[in-house]
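Support reply, case 0932

Customer input (verbatim):
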Amino acid sequence: MATEENRERRDLPIGVFDSGLGGLTVAREIMRQLPNEKLVYFGDTARVPYGSKSRETVTRYSRQIVRFLQTMEVKAIVVACNTASAYALDELESEIDIPILGVVKPGAKVAAEVTRNGRIGIIGTEGTVGSGIYTTYIRQIRPDVELIGKACPLFVPLVEEGLWQDPVTDEIAMRYLTELIDSGIDTLILGCTHYPLIRDTVAKIMGDHVTLVNPAYETARELKELLERRQLFSLTAPGLGTNQYRFFVSDGASRFKNFANSIIQYGILSAKVINIEEY
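Our regenerated output:
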């Protein structure tokens, strides 16, 4: 039987953070799949990108953001950044007493399950691809799998400029993906949270025989299971007038709001700038 404290914890928000804008694809999936949940999102827009930074720097940034989210009394945290998931998640898990989930493991699990020929591609930032984190997780499930990684650094600025369906994006994608096509993969992990926004372009180039894995979608699914397992799943929708979704950034609130409203159909009215270095 649920205690009063447990019922109160169910009503607390989920914290989500990313190096900037890409994690909004994860937030969008959480909103779709868990419509009763409140959400606090932080985008580290002043210090983006994380993909080219060191493990130590990304871990320090992630710790600061987690401390901020804890001041918002979140009941769980989603690290909606592949680089931070690769570099910092293990340390963060050992330092806090609430559930924390990254985007790498859910995507890795599904990729290992769906591949037919055991050849899986991973596209992402230099940090994510270079860390080998997807290879580590996938080989824990299927030791025989071959992983082919490809860093695609230009995808993030193209997405953030809104060039989701543009000849420039098509050209860059073709250059990046050609060697993956030639490698004979049958599964491709979109290993950066920006990439679902150019999923159609990637799918067109890779062809119907390649299954695309979207870790943002899989992470929302895993979060739902985790909340149900921990008895933290919100049973009722927030009341009228409740500020269900709150957004914070470290810089550029107006640009963030415009981008967020282009991909999330919930009318994001504001994003507040905070000094994350204080945490």
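We compared this against your earlier run and they match. Two observations from our side: The longest strand covers residues 119-124. The beta strands are 14-18, 39-43, 76-79, 100-102, 119-124, 146-151, 187-191, 211-213, 245-249, 272-273. Please reopen the case if you see a mismatch on your end.
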